[in-house]
Amino acid sequence: MSSLETAEHPERLNRIVIEPVTRVEGHGKVTLLQDDNNQIKQARLHIVEFRGFEKFIQGRPYWELPVLVQRLCGICPVSHHLAAAKATDMLVGARELTPTAEKIRRLMHYGQTLQSHALHFFHLSSPDLLFGFDDEVAHRNIIGVIEDHPEIAMQGVKLRKYGQEVIRLTAGKRVHGTGAIPGGVNKSLNRDEIDYLLKDIDQMIQWGRDAVELIKRVFFEQKDYHMAFGTIESNMLSLIGDKGEFEIYHGGLRAMDKDGALLFDHVDYVDYNDYIKEDVKNWSYMKFPFIETIGAENGWYRVGPLARVNNCDYFSTTFAEIERQALKAVTDGKPMQAALAYHWARLIELLYCTEAIKELLLDADISGSDLLNKGDMQACGIGVVEAPRGTLFHHYEMNDDGVVTRANLIVSTTNNNQAMNESIRQVASTYLDGNQLTEPLLNQIEVAIRAYDPCLSCATHAMGKMPLEITLVNENDEVVDRIEKRATGHIQKG
Fold it and tell me: What is the DSSP letter of 120?
C-alpha cells in the first residue's frame, strides 16, 4: 500500500480537489495534499454518494431481488440482475439450471458485457487514447472522435446497439429487464429472433477484431509510456472455469499474486466470505475488500478485464485466444500490471463475447422450452458473476416468510477501490509533483481512474463535458490557485 494514502500533519498541507471525476458512471472526487514545494503527500479517491441498497432491500420478498437490484445501475443492470438471480436460485433450491435457462442467461450476459465494453472504450476512453491526454479539452471527447474518426465511432455505436438487442431479446427490454427469475428464465428465443441476431453477428466479430487491432496500435505507439502510466503491482481476482478457461457467468474463484503464483484456486464462490473480508475508511462510502490470509495492508486486489485475462489459462473461442496470447507475450507470460492495459483486455473480452454469442445462437438449446427448476427452499443465497467491471458478489438471507433479512453486496468497483487509489497516487507522484495546475495534468488523474471503468453509482455522466473545479488552498484556508473547467470545456483560471 502506498505511503500517499495518509499524510502526516495534513492541516499543514495545501489541498487540491478534483470534483467531479468525468467520463465515468457516477460521481466521485479526488483530493491531493501538497507541501509548499508542490510535492504530493496524499492522494485519495472519494466516493461521495451513499446508495444504501444493502439496507433498503431488507424487508422485501426474495422474488423481487432480480428486478429490484437492477436499479443500482442503468449501465450494467444485467450484471446485478444475474447475480441476484443466481442468489435466488439457491434460495429456491435450484441447484442446477436447465440447459436452455443457463444458455439464455449466458447470452444475456455476453450481450451486457459487449455493450458495456463498447460504451466505455469508444465513448468514454477512446478520446484520450486517440488524441492524447493533453489534447484540447473541447476536442477530447466523443464528438471529436465522431468528427475525426467517424468509422471508429460508428463501429462503437453499432457494437453497443447489437449488445443491447441481445439483452432486449433475452431479458424483455434493454434496461431493467425481467428475463431471469428464481430457478431459471421466463423465455427462450424463437427462430425469428435467432435469425435476427445471426444476421449481423459476423460483422460484429470482425469489428471486435478491428477494435483489438486499434488498441494494440495505440498501445505500442508509446509502449514504454503506456506500460508505466498508473501502473501498480497487485494481486488479481476473478472467476475461472473448471478447466482454467476464461469465464464470466459461472465458475470458481481464482486469485494470484503479482508474480503469477496462485493464492487460491477453484474456490466455490459460496465460500467467498472465508477468503475475502471488507475494510472501511472514514473518508469514503466505498468499502475496501482484501484477501484475509494476506491482510488489509497487502491483501487488496484488482478485478475486471485485466484480472480475468491474467488469471485464465485460455479463451474457449479462437480469435480471443489468439489476442490473449499476444497480450501475454508483452510480459513474457507474467501478469500484465499496466493500468492502461485494462483497455486492451477489455477489447479482447468484447471480441470473445461476439464469438460466444454466435456459438450460443447456433446451439439448439437456446430455443428450448424447459426453462425452470426448483427444489427445497433455503435461508441463504449467494450469486457471483463477472460484471464488465469485475467480480460481483450478491449475498442474501431470508426468513421463513421469504422476506430478506440481510444483504451484502460487493460490487466490481468496490473490489477495485484500493487499486484505483494506488494508481492515482502513482500518477500524482510521477506527473503532478512540482507542477503548476493545468487541465491536462488534471486529466491524467482521470485517465488513470477511467482505465478501471468504475461505476461510482448509477448517475448519468455528460460525456466529458461536466463542470469541474480545482481549488488549491493553503493551511490558512487562503485560496492559492483555482481552475474551473466549464460545461463547455472552457478553462477559466483564477
Answer: I
